[in-house]
Amino acid sequence: MYGYRKEHIVCILGYIALFASLIANSYLIPDATFMIGICLLPFIMYALPRHEKSMRFLPIVLVFFAGSFYVREVSFRYLTLLFATLFAMESLSGKVSPLVFWLLLIISPLFKYLSEIFTFPIRLQLSKWAGLLLQTAHFPATVTGNIIQVNGSDFSVDPACMGLQMTGFSLLAGIFLLVHFQKSTGKELPWYLSTLVIAILFGFNIVSNLLRIVVLVVFSIGPENILHDVVGILCLVLYVWLPASFFVKYFFRFFAQPVMEQIFVKQPGKPTTLAFNFIILAGCCFVIFQNKKINIGETKINAFGHSEKYDSSQLSNGASRFKSEKSLVYLKPIPAFYSTDHSPYTCWKGSGYEFANIREENFAGRRIYFGTLKKGNDVLHTAWWFSNNNHITISQIDWRWKVIRGEPGFQLVNVTAGDQKDLKQAISEWMPRI
């Protein structure tokens, strides 16, 4: 089995059991992207040539083990397990392709989270770009937030319309193409060019979704229509997979280098290497099964103009809730620059609400997000931003970079009301006067 002995297989089975525990705990979601990735993993492992054994991942594993005592995020535990698994593979059998790392990352919730959070501004821009294309083609299109109006009909572009599932499919297809051309040509790309290919595919996916939105608007195809999914698949094939096959072939033609498969001599593993692997496996068991501790930051209540008309309560996740007759406010401290931010888009959707008309607007000279929440006949208006009492921002990169540089921690401020007048009044009360 790919150069593994019995004791090696026992170690690998231990890691498989730990990944299975993450599925049982609902961290790893066995959706279509995950299942395709798992099916692709043996193809990568057996299709690519084997190299000498390596301990190169050991320092990374040790750093993540040390960090796991301070960082209690589940995604950090997953990365620890991921690097430990790569260390086991390479130290027991031989170096693996960097594509294995990319595959295990793409099928994880960490990738979905990073895609959803850091591409949120891009996804909001998709409706503006789609409206511009329609206007260029002489369609009477107007854009308000994420709503495109054509001939009196409104088309709401879901902020998730970038298609995170399609993004995963695109990148997995890129990995498949890289492995296929490496196997058929006997050459391989340097790791940085393989990474560039994946980044280009990510860009192609944005273009594909932009054109998909234009087609859906032009032909008035709603999400309940089966053609909605058909158009998505066609755009994925025409604007992602087809061009990807050409430029990956081009990369291999001009930049790939011949790779020689080494003769693999079956030898018993060194006792020290086996000992390292089983110690690391035991450490992974401790990391994965340790109780998750919620790191609750400090809520800067007074600085945000808290008044007696709000009833306050502390939630189990560390957030503070303030409720008055006309508005509802959540203050959600963010423990560290690497932490999740309790996105209102995710939290409100979890309560059964659908977002509409999401947009950036100026309020008192500052850019903040506005949106409308709908649940049956219930309609609410909401706004949110990040603040540390010195700065207000809506940029994920901006607030995380400020925290890295040593500035005070940020918190998410989410204000909701029944109408626009009450919303603006509440924002005025809770936005610090910097």
TrEMBL record:
Spans through the membrane: 9-26, 32-48, 60-79, 99-120, 132-150, 162-179, 191-219, 231-252, 273-289
The organism's superkingdom is given as Bacteria
Biological process, per Gene Ontology: proteolysis
Q: How does it sit in the membrane?
A: Multi-pass membrane protein
Which cellular compartments is it found in? Cell membrane
Q: Name one GO cellular component term.
A: plasma membrane
EC number annotated for this UniProt entry: 3.4.22.-
Coiled coil: which residue ranges? Answer: none
Major localization class: membrane
Question: Keywords on this record?
Answer: Cell membrane, Hydrolase, Membrane, Protease, Transmembrane, Transmembrane helix
User: Which GO MF terms are attached to this record?
Assistant: peptidase activity
Q: Which InterPro entries match?
A: Exo/Archaeosortase_dom, Exosort_XrtN, Exosortase
Which NCBIfam families does the entry link to?
A: exo_archaeo, exosort_XrtN
The name on file for this protein is: Exosortase N
Which species is this record about? Dyadobacter pollutisoli
